[in-house]
Amino acid sequence: MRRIQRRIALLAVPALVAGVLVSTGPAGADPTGPKGSAGSGHSLLENIKQAHHVDIKLAGADMLDKVAAAGFDIEHGLKRVPDGIEGEVVVTADELTKLKSMGVQLLDDNTRFKWSEKADGGLKGPAGPKAKPPAPGGPPATDPALATVRIARADWFTTKGQGFLYVEARTTEGQQTNPIVGMQLENNSGKGTPFEFARTMSRFVDSGQYMFHRNLFKLDTRPSEIRVTSSTGGVTTGVVSDWLENAPSPLTEKPGYKSDFVDGYRHPQQLFARAKEIAQQYPGIAEIVYLPNQTNGYQRKAQATIGGTGQSAVVVSSAAWGHEGGNDVTVEFVNRSGANLPLAVEVTGKAVRVLLAKDASGALSSTATQVAEALRTQSQGLIDRSHPYRTNAGTGIVAPTEGPVALTDFLDQKRVGAPEGEVPRGPVTIPVLRIGKHRDGKKPGVLIQAQDHAREWVPATTSLESAERLVHNYKTDKETKNIVDNTDVFFILSNNPDGANYSFYNFASQRKNMTNHCADSAADPANRNSWGVDLNRNYRVGSAQDGYSGGSSVCTSGTYQGPEKLSEPESKNIIWLVEKYKNIKFMMSVHSNGGQLFWQPGAYIADGRITTPRPPLGDEAFYWQSASRILGQVKAHRETVVTPENVGGSSDVLYSSAGNVREDLYHTYGIYAFGWEVGGSIYNPATGNWQGGSFQPAWDGNPELVSGHAETMEYANGIMEMFRVAADWGKDKKKPTSDLVPGNGKYQGPVNVHFETNEPATIYYTTDGSRPTLESPRYAATEFREPGQVFHVTETTTFNWFSVDSAGNIEKGYDPTKNDKRNNYRTATIKIETKKK
């Protein structure tokens, strides 16, 4: 018996179509009230002096890692294109020159990738042997065991009055680079109509590995079938499926249902205060759980770089936090009259005077290295770190200052547009809002984690809106009562409060937390907006420390992984929570922006594109089923479609993100862990393009395109549906059923068989006559993002198997751990009869 790959259309799938990139909006727009004024579709990220918003193209994942490691922040707004990755970056002229020197290509309207909407009439590249195409709906022209083309997905969806077809197909010749294999797609105009509208599909390669060919284009009429032909001769047909076309009405459309509670962006203090109020107002169904590891806090040491940036420069940092006295420290470099004077330090209160040395001729002779050492050892504990500027040797002679230089932590909270009020300094204890009628560990737990990345404001409002809907509708809405009575929900409304405050009050583009792990070479205050750890790169599975791509060891990189795994209190808290509350079975890490919904695998080793383990086919199917439910509710609000190409394993649809939280929770604890990039592209019928979002869209922006308020409401719909998925999962006691197709029987010659299940389920099977166990082979996908494999049976074979659904129910009550006499597993014999000569 040999295995072959199954040829059918699946449900749906990866990257964003080319969108209209949104320009950076002006500073000064108020993001905090219900009436943000930045203007429709504009980001509230501040303009950086002499910086430009630039659209770029990277050759692939390796270049993405190198550019991120160099300190460029391009982790969102990325989309895969056939020959690389497109993204956005804000850079100065000097930084732009550096980017170009690294091989990064600049894009404009003419060079950005766009899906072709024109029929080109034929394949490009060398033609191979022609296979006779099958009739629409008919059997394949050749034995499927020899097929060189497979359709993985063929999905139809509508949005804003326009229909789209997305197709993904593979060829066994696709890994070739010379010649490049072409794929041609044809579609019909409905059942019984001929194939037409030939288009060439784009070949998608990632990290040097062929992934598939794909295409997305507009159509006036929904096709029922497609046909894909390879330039090497392979041909196959597939049935078109619907994507998010039949979602039920959201809860918000029910009479009397309360929603739209959040009227503007919320900083962490407001989020946490409201969480505590909810627990106080609804004690019967809500409480606060405090996470044990305090954050570093919205605080920094006071600093100054004295003497420019050359060999004579000295970087000085206070021992005390700025707000605890560091901001009161002054440092002065003093020139005295005379000769042969030693280097000395005088301290009066918080004033530090460095008396510079002089040589025999009366010339100043103290080097930056010497001054730095004197400050460290003779400042009576006022100065903690003192060193030459960055990588300088510090050999230059230090010049006197024009009076005392005041140290500062730069946390002046005067960014234009920031909300009023003093941010509490010092470590923060993060509260978790827990909602559920039965909080005894017997109901399935759902963890909603928002704002790992500080600048992502919509995830926090989306999560708060979901919490408000639960408590306000519990007594009046049957579906909400079902959720609260049958789940145990944990909301972390901001998992990065320090960074979020820094985003609100100092530097809106802040991504990481505020902990500075940088060595002297990067610890000067000019780098302060680049310090911190990317919390979603700080976990243990598929980490950068283990060789996976997408995490950086450079402390100023936007994807800095931290000095070690779980180095940060914020990531330690997540592990503490799921270990303490073992009923947590679902998790959603809510991010922005991009419009992807994804799961495992989330990372790969670039050399060979070796991913973390892929979920079993049953788990993958459950993820897809849940995603369809969740995204259907998002679409119901204002027809925002998270396109099928943006759903699946995150390393397949987005990029490799080493050490992310989802990998750790799924592989270590068996939690169904989703990642969500809310605020994806929206089709604009006026322009015929897909318009991208931003991290902080104007709250009352264009409600049909880019709006913080609209995103909050529609993605809260999706989170509510995730709660219903968990409630259904918790009540699922029904055993799955499965079949071998075709089944038991006699066959004249070789036959192709495969397994089918009535719901997402994992199948364990044997073909050697033994009883199946949990150690037996698992029925696998043909290839990633494809359905189950097909077995090409050439001799009589008996299959023994059982299936297990996502809730752990086993078919027919079979116990694979016990060798009892019932042996009530499934069995089928494929008997191959040999013709007599």
From TrEMBL:
The keyword Chloroplast does not apply. Residues 385-719 form the Peptidase M14 domain. Residues 131-142 have a biased composition (Pro residues). Residues 117-142 are annotated as: Disordered. Its cofactor is Zn(2+). It comes from the Bacteria. GO terms for cellular component: extracellular space. Residues 1-29 form the signal peptide. Keywords: Hydrolase, Metalloprotease, Protease, Signal, Zinc. One of its GO terms (molecular function) is metallocarboxypeptidase activity. The keyword Hydrolase applies. The active site is at residue 677. Belongs to the peptidase M14 family. This is M14 family metallopeptidase. It comes from Micromonospora profundi. The lineage of its organism: Bacteria, Bacillati, Actinomycetota, Actinomycetes, Micromonosporales.
